[in-house]
Amino acid sequence: MNRVQLSRIRATHIAAALCIFAWPVAAIGLAQDVRDASDEADAQAQTAASKLPPPEGATQLSPKYDVWVDAAKGMVIVDGRIALRRGMLEMFSCTRNTKEHESIVAADAQAFLVHAGLLRLGAEVGHPVQFMNAANQPEFKPPAGTEIDIEVMWHDTDGKEHTTRAQDWIRDMKTGKAMTYPWVFAGSRFWTDPDTGRQYYQAEGGDFICVANFGTAMLDIPVKSSQSNAELEFEAFTDRIPPVGTPVRMFLKPKLEKKETKAAEPAEKPNGDQTK
Predict the structure, then answer these.
(1) Which residues pair with 185 in a beta bridge?
(2) Region of residue 206 (phi > 0: left; psi between -120 and 50: alpha; otherwise: beta)
(3) How far apart are the C-alpha atoms of 201 and 119, rounded to whole Å?
(4) pTM, whole model, 2 decimals?
(5) How many other CB atoms are found less than 10 A from the CB of residue 115?
(6) Tens digits of per-residue pLDDT, 46-102?
(7) Can you give the three-state secondary structure of 227-250, one letter per residue?
(8) Best label site of 79, 223, 228, 244, fewest CB within 10 Å?
């Protein structure tokens, strides 16, 4: 056997070994593709379903977006769809076509409309997370603002209506239980284009309802929560979340402090009153 024949035999053996090694890798990839295709088909089927009917008694803030204010019930109402059921989270909800890969709900809204609706109900803006103090020294300051309760409503495949707290769809990886932290109205911030002078509300980039701290968050949790991929603390509570694409409705309710009212003082009797 000459060297050329020997080289050909070796090459054939190497190629066969590579195929054997690559098969389980390809199988894993194929399984993932099947799962992804299943999720995508599920999402398309749900997208074809009719949207939720407009909420009665509420005022829509824009004809282009599913955002309403119900002043009588003290809530901002936002429609969206399930974008994710498994995986790590930086958001509970993002605005549509932004950060669906790390958000449970994709909201059919613009963040500034929801911001305006919360202000209309009397919520007060605090501030997003801060990592530096006034002296430009490292100092963590958690997000602050009016606390906002969030509930989510959806219908199952039988048409039955369900409602739950948004926290129940978020799993705290430290405890294995639902997240317990509330959200606060951090309010994001505006950036002004130096060339045009136009202002941009930075939460429109997707930092809508966050569970990891962002300096541009509209709503955030009032504790330290890293946005680093290696240190994310929350994930989707898969078993509790309806299928991808399911229409959902979020109810954002500011927890407003009740103003104290003084009891009316009795009127003084006029001088010389002879009533007995």
Answers:
(1) 219
(2) left
(3) 15
(4) 0.74
(5) 21
(6) 444 578 999 999 999 999 999 999 999 999 999 999 999 999 999 999 999 999 999
(7) CCHHHCCEEECHHHCCCCCCEEEE
(8) 228
